[in-house]
Amino acid sequence: MRRPVVGLALFAWACAGAAAPRLDSLSVQVLSGKASDVVISVSIERPSLLDLTCGATIETGDGGQISIAWNLGDSRTKTARYEYKRPGTYRVRVRGAGNEACVGEKEASLTVGTSGTPGTRGRAAATPSCPAGWTLVEDSVKGPRYTCRARAPAQPLRCAEGTAYFVENGEIGCR
Questions:
Q1: How far apart are CA 163 and CA 157, in angstroms?
Q2: Are the C-beta atoms of 99 and 116 separated by less than 8 Å?
Q3: What is the pTM of this model?
Q4: Which of 15, 81, 80, 75 lies closest to 44 in space, CA to CA?
Q5: What is the pLDDT of residues 12-64, one digit of tens each?
Q6: Three-class SS string for the chain?
Q7: Is CATH 3.40.50.720 what the domain over 20-127 is classified as, yes or no?
Q8: What ranges do the domains of the chain cover?
Q9: Nearest to 40 by CA among 50, 49, 30, 32
């Protein structure tokens, strides 16, 4: 009879110390057939198996918002479909929201519109996307050109006495 109580106490203790899932990536793609119709994909990274839920809000850049949430058993990537009413360039942003907010924030730029030629659909600008472990340098996006920087680890390095952890220009260390 004592084992279930001990197991439950250990589970509650582990959950209390668990970190919230972190927003890992954001991508925006135009659906074929309609230049203003896009799919927005957001992925999270769960630090442990106990990090079961988190919520986020996608700001579409034209005043629209989409709420998304992850629960136990969900895949790490969620997608949402959105239709822009007017052509233009938009900054799409996702950030944690709600009581169990995901940690972090991601942004991407998207251009939607029509080419003006009948029967030809417009194209979205290539959305910069960095591989896992890297983040987009915000000021670096210039058309198809952009720069990625290594993401600092979730936990800082343990530095020797008399030194301090630092993160600068994509470098980490102890000084």
A1: 11
A2: no
A3: 0.55
A4: 75
A5: 444 544 567 888 889 888 876 566 788 898 988 877 666 678 899 999 999 99
A6: CHHHHHHHHHHHHHHHHCCCCEEEEEEEEECCCCCCEEEEEEEEECCCCCCCCEEEEEECCCCCEEEEEECCCCCCEEEEEEECCCCEEEEEEEEECCCCECECEEEEEEEECCCCCCCCCCCCCCCCCCCCCEEECHHHCECCECCEEECCCCCCCCCCCCCCEEEECCEEEEC
A7: no
A8: 20-127
A9: 30
Query: What are 41's two structure tokens?
Result: 């994909």
Residue 109 tokens read as 């730029």
Euclidean distance between CA atoms 5 and 11, whole angstroms: 10
